[in-house]
C-alpha cells in the first residue's frame, strides 16, 4: 500500500509554455530522408513561439517539427512538454542578432541558424502522486 505509481495531470497551454521557458535545453525532432532525427538544443520561448539556434535549422526550416523538454519543479516530481508545429528560419538581421545574444547553441558547429517554431499543438503533463 502507498506504492501507487504517479498519474499524469494535463497542463494548460499557458502553463506548458511557462515550464518550457524554464527548461535549460530541449530536443528538436525532425526528419532526414523520411527518418526521425532528434537533436538536443538550447531554446527560448518568446511571444508563445519556441526559438532555437542550432546547426539543424536548415534541415528543419519549412517542416513540421516537434520540440520536447522535461524537468522537475517544486510542485511535482516531473513534467514533460511537447510542442508540434512548423519551423521557419528567422531571416531578419535584427531578430537574428537579438537571439544570438540570448541563446548560445548547445553544440559549437558551423551553419548555426535561428528558427522559430509556430506551436500548433502544445501538450503538457505533470507527474502527480498516485496516492
TrEMBL record:
Its EC number is 1.-.-.-. It comes from the Bacteria. It holds the Pfam family Pyridox_ox_2. GO terms for molecular function: oxidoreductase activity. It is an enzyme of class 1 (oxidoreductase). Keywords: Oxidoreductase. This is Pyridoxamine 5'-phosphate oxidase family protein. It comes from Actinophytocola glycyrrhizae. The lineage of its organism: Bacteria, Bacillati, Actinomycetota, Actinomycetes, Pseudonocardiales.
Amino acid at each position: 500500500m502507498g506504492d501507487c505509481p504517479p498519474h499524469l495531470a494535463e497542463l494548460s497551454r499557458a502553463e506548458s509554455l511557462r515550464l518550457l521557458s524554464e527548461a535549460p535545453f530541449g530536443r528538436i525532432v525532425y526528419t532526414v530522408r523520411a527518418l526521425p532525427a532528434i537533436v538536443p538544443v538550447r531554446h527560448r520561448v518568446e511571444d508563445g513561439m519556441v526559438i532555437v539556434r542550432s546547426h539543424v535549422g536548415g534541415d528543419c526550416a519549412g517542416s513540421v517539427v516537434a520540440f520536447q523538454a522535461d524537468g522537475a519543479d517544486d510542485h511535482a516530481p516531473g513534467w514533460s512538454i511537447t510542442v508540434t508545429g512548423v519551423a521557419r528560419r528567422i531571416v531578419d538581421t535584427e531578430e537574428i542578432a537579438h537571439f544570438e545574444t540570448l541563446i548560445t547553441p548547445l553544440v559549437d558547429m558551423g551553419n548555426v541558424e535561428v528558427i522559430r517554431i509556430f506551436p500548433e499543438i502544445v501538450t503538457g503533463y505533470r507527474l502527480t502522486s498516485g496516492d
